[in-house]
Design a protein that fits this description.
single chain; two-stranded antiparallel ribbon; mainly alpha
Amino acid sequence: MTEELLKSRLGNCEVCAINPAKYTCPECEVKTCCLQCVKIHKKELECTGTRNKVKFKPIHRMNALDLQSDYLLLEDATRSVDGIVNYGKGLRKSTFYSM
């Protein structure tokens, strides 16, 4: 992307307010321009920089990536449940009871 397109889309860095922003924090959506500003933002806001997968997002703010992320979260949950169910079946077959 060109510098002008990035500048028009994200605006200026919300930390230094000097340079055009290049990055958006996945957790709090703060716009930053460089690694130094990212570190400052995380320290000042006590932000982890990790998106909360189960945080509510209104339908009018969702995009295709949000929908895909939700789908992948449901697939992960299904995979975890299937693993637990299959693990339980394996325990019942391999356990011997002595009388």
